[in-house]
Design a protein that fits this description.
About 35% of the residues lie in helices and about 20% in strands. The protein is of the alpha/beta class and about 400 residues long. It is globular.
Length: about 400
């Protein structure tokens, strides 16, 4: 279904950059989320007693507690009538907007808080090992001590082969993302300067075909964000940012399990590793909204490797299936492209702020529509699509926002 009356009433972020200054103490995930939520409520001109529902994502890497949502309620002193954590890997943050919108349109809530955060940069010593252990199958994969790039590499090898992508093609992705990050004041790689194709190709191989500069850097800081949703009637006159539609698709848990997927959709004739759940999630969102991909003005996608950007672009319909190599070579990722992509540099250059990376791209897409983006602003953008994925290309959610 399309959402007709759900708007973004307020949003905010909170950040602590590492290394810490003299006398500065590391923030916690809950402390950062609390700051972002209070700012978002102030912008929405409401107080905590008006929040009817609270949604968040799975436990952050920076804290060991399981019930993130309960901790948020305790921090903000909120007593909602609906609350849960959406657990479909990293895609749950966008999914939470769908459940909030459903409550609003059914009038089971008047104001919904969707909150995210992760202080992993301050508290996690080895995020690479922690992340790989969480994403590998305990029986068939973890005993071989894979790293996250090697798990993703099994998809990457097949996709690069089938689409005829070269090292230069993958390097252009990293170069384009760095160029966008240079214009964003909070991007992790902003002070690293521009990249060249030769620099990318010369960087060390991590897990073929991904080299070091094909991989997302960890954000050297802790981040949180909050979005307040309500019905349009609850905000004043003037332009509004509407949540138009959200699509979801989850295809597997681990890479080895993915090979048993067949019987429906793009996998009906047998399993494959080159079509992701973004294919169905994107089409679901566009169909719900009554739009085509040509109606989208800006695209933000949450992916941590260079090969995944062309894979997702193809699945979302930015180019015909099998033609993404030509799309890249014709400047599809340039600033002047028909649809600007990852305007803050995305995970490849803005950086992966642990589990808050989805919220980073959500807020970037919303800011592009209301003209408050901190970096490269896209003039006249009226519709934004935000895609997130979690696990090893397992769970996908796509949201469409529209500025009235």
């Amino acid at each position: 279904m399309a959402f007709e009356n759900v708007v973004v009433a307020g949003y905010a972020s909170a950040v602590q950059i590492m290394p810490l200054g003299d006398g500065e103490r590391p923030r916690t995930t809950i402390g950062l989320i609390g700051d972002a939520a209070r700012r978002a409520m102030a912008i929405a001109a409401i107080d905590r007693r008006q929040i009817d529902a609270v949604f968040t994502h799975r436990p952050p890497l920076g804290d060991s507690f399981l019930l993130l949502g309960q901790k948020i309620l305790a921090e903000l002193k909120i007593a909602p009538t609906s609350t849960t954590a959406i657990m479909n890997h990293g895609a749950g943050m966008i999914s939470s907007l769908k459940y909030g919108a459903l409550l609003l349109e059914s009038r089971l809530a008047d104001y919904v808080l969707c909150a995210s955060g992760d202080a992993g940069a301050a508290w996690v010593d080895d995020p690479v090992a922690l992340n790989a252990n969480a994403e590998a199958d305990a029986h068939f994969e973890a005993p071989y001590d894979p790293i996250t790039p090697s798990l993703y590499g099994q998809f990457a090898q097949r996709f690069v082969y089938e689409r005829g992508l070269t090292e230069e093609d993958l390097a252009t992705v990293s170069v384009a993302m760095r160029a966008k990050a240079l214009r964003h004041p909070e991007a992790e790689m902003r002070n690293k300067g521009p990249l060249t194709i030769d620099q990318v190709i010369a960087s060390p191989m991590i897990a073929s075909p991904s080299r070091l500069l094909h991989c997302a850097p960890w954000y050297r800081g802790s981040r949180a964000g909050a979005i307040i949703l309500t019905r349009a009637e609850n905000v004043g006159p003037g332009p509004k940012t509407y949540v138009r539609a959200i699509g979801e698709n989850v295809t597997h848990e681990h890479v080895t399990g993915r090979m048993g997927l067949y019987g429906f959709g793009p996998w009906k004739d047998g399993p494959n590793l080159t079509t992701t759940g973004a294919y169905l999630a994107g089409r679901q969102a566009l169909n719900f909204a009554g739009l085509s991909i040509d109606d989208i003005d800006v695209l933000e996608t949450v992916v941590p490797f260079a090969f995944l950007i062309p894979m997702i672009l193809e699945d979302l319909g930015m180019c015909e299936r099998g033609e993404v190599a030509g799309y890249l070579r014709q400047g599809g990722l340039d600033r002047a492209a028909r649809v600007p992509i990852n305007t803050n540099g995305g995970m490849l250059s803005f950086g992966q702020s642990f589990l808050n990376c989805v919220m980073d791209q959500l807020l970037e897409g919303i800011q592009q529509l209301d003209g408050t983006a901190l970096g490269d602003r896209i003039a006249g953008a009226n519709r934004a699509m935000v895609h997130s994925h979690g696990g090893v290309i397992a769970a996908h959610t796509v949201a469409i926002f529209e500025r009235s």
